[in-house]
Design brief:
By secondary structure, the chain is mainly beta. The protein contains two helices and eleven strands; from the N terminus they run E-E-E-E-E-E-E-E-E-E-E-H-H. It is elongated. The chain starts with a strand and ends in an 11-residue tail after the last helix.
Length: about 170
Amino acid sequence: MSVNVPFFGFDSNIMYHVKKNVSIYFRTNYSTYPGEMLFVIGDHKALGNWDRKNSLQMHYQKNDSVNWVGKLDIEMEEDEEIKIEYKYIVLTYYSDNNSGDIRIEKDVKITWEYGPNRVLTIGKLSKDTDKMIVTTTDLFQSSLSRYQDILCKMPFKDVIYKHEIEKSSSI
């Protein structure tokens, strides 16, 4: 809570700014391959303002049907309403020589979730609410090119798409 009070005396027109804690859990299901990581990116400062270098890293949950989770903690005033636009992105890095943070690497393939931006709206909080927890459970929207990319990987090329043609001397 921040209070603007003159150094001497008391001002009856004090404006109280009560900040409330909000935890947002972004959850989605996605099957990754080695070198791939999921992130949430969006128009909020805590989601990087659409800059992948500051996006929210998600973490893999092994025994959960919705297997990727990212937690975002923000503060908002009780009379404030927040609207956040966001998407999921997959970053793929193909080299072992990295800095440890895939978001800042130059040699990274970025796969944006297909479709329009998602929108999360958090309404005004009541005076009785000290902390709010919001959970989104989203289905990752893959484009057809994602499936084409999977089907063009080496195991598919070498096994499924392999056609042996025997030479024949007669037709």
